[in-house]
Amino acid sequence: MREPIITLKDVSYRYPRTRVWVLKKINLEIREGAFVAVMGENGAGKTTLCKLFNGVIPHSQEGVLKGTVTVDGIVTSEASVATLATSVGMVLEDPEAQLFTTIVRNEVAFGPENLLVPPDEIRERITWALDVVGLSGYIDKPPAALSGGQKQRLAIASALAMAKKILVLDEPTSQLDPVGTKDVFSVIREIREKYNITVIMATHKSEEIAEFADRVCILKNGVVAACDTPAVIFSNRELLRDNWIKPPDVSELAHYMHERGEDFKVFPILLEEACRTVTDWYRGT
Fold it and tell me: Would 213 be classed as within a structural domain?
């Protein structure tokens, strides 16, 4: 079994000028190469949790942090954001908030340049990162000419050019159409399969999480309410209702049948599983 690349031990956090703890005594381990989805209703603490991994909390975001966050062997409270940036790349909800140069090439180069990476290595990183996200043909294009999904892939490339171990994404597809969403998730799958990069994503997209994630952690009022495989999480109707999480459509069907006294032998979370399960149920096998 792979060792944890991220460990949170008794972690609590509250923002300045408030007595409300946004995160409360969180204990969590994320293993290298895993894809962990963080889900929960708005205000549950998902974005705050993401800010722990790259050191924005406690270094750039004031407040009170208790407990220990260890990322790639580094205790985040003892290292700078710049140091953590060599291990952790961050992608935000709105790609427009991260893209500010006039050429795709310069956008990917910006982070490594600020980390004082040698020019030859920067060029190698640009080529590699754009190839990974499928934007090699856009290297001299302005970011403004890209579609929403392409802009988000460019933001991912910019993050990967700095850090090749951990990718943290905060609602990266919330502003994208289905095509853009599919493109982003496809890129993430390729990144994991080829480069063993650990992915942590705050999201509401149950359909895609059912297909791509290894584990789903549910946050509720700053506490980890559950953390398990997508199959276990999406089969728990009470947990989903309590946290305002919509399950995949095929899981909705299984819940509907259960409420009417008909249970499938296998609880489906993917379309292929549902097709097999419904066929077996219909045939009585």
Answer: yes
